[in-house]
Amino acid sequence: MLPEVTATRYVTPLREGGSLPGIVEADDLGTYVMKFTGAGQGRKSLVAEVISGRLARALGLRVPDLVGIRLDPVIGRAESDPEVQGLLKASGGLNLGMDYLPGALGFDPLAFETDAAEAGRVVWFDALVGNVDRSWRNPNLLVWHGALWLIDHGATMIWHHNWPSAPAAAAKPYDASDHVLATFSPDLAGAAAELAPRVTEELLTEVVADVPDEWLDGEPGFDGPDAVRRAYVEVLRDRAAGVGDRITVGERSADKPSQAPEWVRVRLDRKAGK
Ligand SMILES: Nc1ncnc2c1ncn2[C@@H]1O[C@H](COP(=O)(O)OP(=O)(O)OP(=O)(O)O)[C@@H](O)[C@H]1O
Ligand SMILES: [Mg+2]
Predict the structure, then answer these.
(1) Residue 120 sits in which domain range?
(2) What is the distance between the alpha carbons of residues 21 and 33, in angstroms, rounded to a whole number?
(3) Ligand 2 centre and the CA of 18: distance in Å?
(4) What is the count of structural domains for the chain?
(5) In what ranges is there compositional bias, type Basic and acidic residues (predicted)?
(6) What is the mean pLDDT of the chain?
């Protein structure tokens, strides 16, 4: 079960986030980055945050603590921005909170080094959950106390937007060419050997149990929340087995040139010994 707290104060919106997450304080005296059920991305992005965030942690990657946050929209009454007001009004009930890391810096691949082993683990994990949101454009990695922290898993597992296609998603390749850690020589073979055997049905069942029923209720084609949980387990279990062999990094051809800016390409070429 996801621990549950109640929001006591809406502090400020985080303008850099596409979904307009906000900083809130809660009755456990914690400060959280809150993702709203009423945001355009919808509750599936919250499900993705929980499953991918918990799975990453279970595999030894750093992800800030996750909680469910009960919101009474009345706490936003003094908020003057109509967009924020609308979001709060649409998000009564259970929302997602991620422990706020004070003073964390956005990851900058020119200012912070990571080793091939850690880069490999992160890229392999992102391939497993099909994360399209860890590119040099939008790294969704923070540096806090000198270490790398993973945030923002709302855009993972896009197959859950079309369940009939989900079984086929297990065998889909992952193009990591624009991944922000692609230039750190990710040790993908090492990561697959270490992590794939740990993604067991048992672990996945524990992870999906953390998703609150109210974000799974009423999913078309399923007979209740547990059936949806089961569907997540099956895709991730099947994907874990072979995804390591289906990751491509930096393999761009003349007719498919890299979209990365010059400084990323220079680093890629240097790593490739060109
Ligand atoms: N736990 C945290 N601690 C400190 N800062 C955070 C935390 N989570 C998010 N942030 C900051 O807030 C920004 C927006 O958060 P996040 O990326 O999760 O939101 P989003 O709306 O999903 O964004 P995106 O635009 O990537 O879709 C991050 O880029 C980061 O600067
Ligand atoms: Mg983000």
Answers:
(1) 106-139+156-271
(2) 6
(3) 7
(4) 2
(5) 264-274
(6) 92
